[in-house]
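My current task is to audit a protein record that another person submitted. Alongside the sequence sits a line of tokens, each denoting a local backbone shape. Where you disagree with what is written, explain briefly why. This is what I was given:
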Amino acid sequence: MELATQRRLGRRVLLPNALHAAARLPQRISAAVVGSPATGIAPDRRAAVLARVERIEREGMRVAVDDSMANGYPPELRADPVRFAAFRARWLGNDPASYAAIYRMLAGTDLRDELPRIACPAFVLGGRLDRTRPPALVEPVARLIPGARYQLLETSHYMAVVTPELIAAAIGEFLDSRAA
């Protein structure tokens, strides 16, 4: 999902910029909702990630589609073959250079020190079937944000596409609880 809603700004921002903004601009951010948030790439994984994106740049998105689908849109959640085929085709349409640039940015990012400064209500979603950023990596992010609510859902990395109704209901419940 990798999106955070910034209600006062009235827009959505790709992570990690949204969490960075929540930490640095508390007067402008009223709440953050993030799914499988990327706050950096662990040092022990950086070399492999950078080698993967270099290969994607050289050979195109096709070299990574099978692994990306297996890890981010697992077979257990492919009940709707039309939705899966459409997402796979859209994923293949990514620009390899842009994709690589995002991962290089993540390889140089570490938001762990910023997360404790987030003062707005935060809702962190994890996917039980997310093999890209599994719950063991997501839950610690929520624990670093004071007062954050963490919810583990029966979904995967591409949760907004794979299980949109489930995600919308969870986010709606969180936002409704804030309005009460």
